């Protein structure tokens, strides 16, 4: 199996179901065989919620100061959230949101430093974190910024159904003005690359949805399909990306066509998330494609109404952890394959890498 992947898990909102689903997921006997988890948050909060779950009282935890001190076969916890931030299960409070941001920032620093291999984020309340100075619509936009990605993609998946979004957390009234050929083409490039690198698909097939009813009905119900979406598809095809469409969303999902493609590109948030959550809510994973690092999360919110009751379903969190492990492994394999291909190409030109020669002053003058 090779080395164990180190998975960082940010606690999310302290007052939501984050800790419950984290604890339940890490209680699965298979987890510690496949990865070494580090929970970024509060051992106090962890212990509080663990007491609400008698079935996992025997879980072995290990409090560490830094990710460099991680121990295998243990659930490691880094105390980065101050104990003076109050717990109030089920209530959206500033302390709960502030704790979520602190934990996320600590985990991201270790991800940037290479101390963890992947990050799994428990949910926070978008309005709540905005009230404590978190100036991003969500995790996806924050991570794209922190890791300097030219573009990124919210990609939701479960088994053989993957769907990405061109526009994310935007009001419906602003969707059309934020769609253009370049933005759609950029998302297609990110999606195509991720499908190959992160999911091991050699020649991905991507379905592109229309924006308007009946995909505009040849301009009768809107012009975005003919003027924006189709030109992006044509240019993507010219680059070797196998993109098809634009398809009317109602007929597309009504005929289960999502399973005939490796992924689907939706134009806006609810166009993608409504069918996805209707079909895969209990196992859906949110993955941020296009980053140099791996980040996944369960595809649901804080669910304050369930907090502290022991009723939350941990399957999406478990799926997010397993998915992070798989994507790390897929990237390692992808990089190994491409490194070997490069060696083969180099052997064709004499078995040596070409020497890099600094240009002389004469060369510079000629240029």
Strand order of the largest sheet: 3-4-2-1-5-12-11-6-7-10-8-9
- Give the mean pLDDT: 90
What summary fits the major beta sheet? 12 strands, mixed
Q: Distance N terminus to C terminus?
A: 52 Å
Order of helices and strands: EHHEHEEHEHHEEHEHEHEHEEHH
Shape estimate: globular
**How much helical structure, as a percent, in the residues?**
25-40%
- Low-pLDDT stretches are 353-367
Q: Tell me the strand percentage band.
A: 15-25%
The total count of helices amounts to 12
Oligomer: single chain
Kindly provide the radius of gyration, computed on alpha-carbon positions and rounded to a whole number of angstroms. Answer: 23 Å
Output the structural class: alpha/beta
Strand element count: 12
What's a quick, concise take on this entry?
By secondary structure, this protein is of the alpha/beta class. The chain has helices at residues 18-26, 31-34, 43-51, 94-113, 126-131, 139-146, 181-197, 224-238, 249-254, 269-280, 315-347, 361-366; strands at 5-10, 35-41, 61-64, 75-79, 118-121, 153-158, 161-165, 205-209, 242-247, 263-266, 285-289, 294-298. Helix content is 40%, strand content 17%.
């Amino acid at each position: 199996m090779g080395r164990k992947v180190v998975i960082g898990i940010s606690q999310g909102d302290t007052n939501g179901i984050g800790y419950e689903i984290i604890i339940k997921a890490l209680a699965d006997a298979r987890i510690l065989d496949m990865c070494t988890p580090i929970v970024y948050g509060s051992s106090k909060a962890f212990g509080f919620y663990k007491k609400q779950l008698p079935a996992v009282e025997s879980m072995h935890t290990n409090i560490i100061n830094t990710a460099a001190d991680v121990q295998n076969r243990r659930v490691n916890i880094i105390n980065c959230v101050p104990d003076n931030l109050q717990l109030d299960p089920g209530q959206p409070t500033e302390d709960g949101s502030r704790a979520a941001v602190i934990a996320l920032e600590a985990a991201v620093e270790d991800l940037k430093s290479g101390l963890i291999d992947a990050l799994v984020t428990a949910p926070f309340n978008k309005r709540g974190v905005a009230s404590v100075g978190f100036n991003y619509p969500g995790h996806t936009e924050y991570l794209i910024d922190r890791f300097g990605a030219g573009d990124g993609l919210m990609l939701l998946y479960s088994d053989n159904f993957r769907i990405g979004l061109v526009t994310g957390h935007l009001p419906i009234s602003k969707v059309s003005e934020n769609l253009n050929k370049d933005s759609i083409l950029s998302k297609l490039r990110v999606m195509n690359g991720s499908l190959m690198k992160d999911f091991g698909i050699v020649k991905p097939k991507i379905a592109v949805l229309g924006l308007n009813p009946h995909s505009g009905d040849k301009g009768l119900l809107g012009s975005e399909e003919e003027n924006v979406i189709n030109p992006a598809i044509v240019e993507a095809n010219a680059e070797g990306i196998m993109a098809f469409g634009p398809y009317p969303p109602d007929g597309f999902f009504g005929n289960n066509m999502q399973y005939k493609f490796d992924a689907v590109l939706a134009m806006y948030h609810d166009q993608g998330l409504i069918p996805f959550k209707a079909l895969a809510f209990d196992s859906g994973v949110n993955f941020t494609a296009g980053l140099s690092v791996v980040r996944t999360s369960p595809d649901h919110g804080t669910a304050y109404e369930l907090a502290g009751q022991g009723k939350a379903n941990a399957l999406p969190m478990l799926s997010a952890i397993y998915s992070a492990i798989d994507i790390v492994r897929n990237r390692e394999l992808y990089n190994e394959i491409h490194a070997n291909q490069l060696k083969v190409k180099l052997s064709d030109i004499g078995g040596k890498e070409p020497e890099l020669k600094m240009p002389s002053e004469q060369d510079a003058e000629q240029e």
